[in-house]
Design a protein that fits this description.
22% of the residues lie in helices and 20% in strands. Strands 2-1-5-10-11-12-13-14 form an eight-stranded mixed beta sheet, sandwiched between helices. Strands 3-4 form a two-stranded antiparallel ribbon.
């Protein structure tokens, strides 16, 4: 029996999972990054190690955690660390890929999770702050950004720079003394963006079914670079969707669309 096609959140989680290669050490973020990482482990990357921000290291399979601090992230884990030691894994080069979201993402992959408004003392919305985001973006080998793309969330200029991506473009990240490759991709409801190797500006890599360059640009507050060839991202196969819906997030905590009001 055929099943309903993927909704935008399921497509996004599937695209996140495809950023992960088997054997990687993966620093997991709350929400759809967590769904995508667990989906990867259930499907094409069974030998990855999941590292959770609050200290859980590679727990056994179990219920979908509500957050990176949920009890399920410690389920029969071989090791549980304090948060500072968990971040130290990235500083010591033990994290291959980390996933991050933000209230704002700019063309160089810099992130704002501090406030929306004119200044630190004159804001419309006060956000959570770094919460460890700066540690990951500064220290992990590869960063994959995850978010819902619209002109307010992807503005030409951040209201505040919380976590560094490629800073001002070019070699500015390396010149600042930051290790790793920085942001290598940005996964949104539109598809997957990457960063042009020289300028480090955000560029369209692949688009989801039904999404055009014009739609992607209309959802972005800065000019996206457009390569000569854009990948056509496939919809998740039915067997992957069944795993996602029945095993990874059976209660649709994160993949329900429209999202449930919490």
């Amino acid at each position: 029996m055929s099943i309903a096609p993927a909704n935008p959140f399921e497509q996004l989680a599937y695209n996140v999972s495809l950023q992960i290669e088997d054997g990687m050490i993966v620093y997991v973020g709350t929400g759809l990054p967590m769904v995508g990482a667990i989906l990867a482990k259930y499907t094409h990357a069974p030998h990855i190690t999941l590292v959770y921000e609050s200290g859980g290291q590679d727990p056994w399979e179990g219920p979908m955690p509500w957050s990176v601090g949920g009890a399920a992230t410690y389920r029969r884990a071989p090791m549980s660390l304090e948060m500072a030691h968990s971040f130290a894994m990235a500083a010591n080069g033990f994290v291959d890929i980390a996933f991050q979201g933000a209230a704002q993402i700019d063309m160089y992959g810099n992130l704002n999770t501090h406030f929306i408004g004119e200044s630190y003392h004159n804001f419309k919305s006060r956000l959570t702050g770094s919460g460890g985001g700066n540690d990951l973006s500064s220290l992990a080998e590869r960063i994959v950004l995850v978010g819902l793309q619209d002109p307010t969330r992807f503005p030409a200029k951040l209201d505040f720079l919380t976590s560094p991506g490629h800073l001002y473009g070019g070699n500015s990240r390396k010149e600042a003394g930051l290790p790793g490759l920085g942001p290598v991709a940005c996964v949104t409801q539109l598809g997957v963006m990457d960063f042009e190797p020289e300028s480090k500006r955000m560029r369209i890599k692949g688009l989801n079914p039904g999404i055009t360059v014009e739609i992607a640009q209309a959802c972005t507050g800065f000019e996206l670079l457009v390569p000569d060839k854009i990948e056509e991202i496939p919809a998740p196969p039915e067997d992957i969707l069944r795993v996602l819906r029945e095993e990874v997030d059976p209660h649709a905590i994160f993949i329900a669309f429209p999202p449930r009001v919490k």
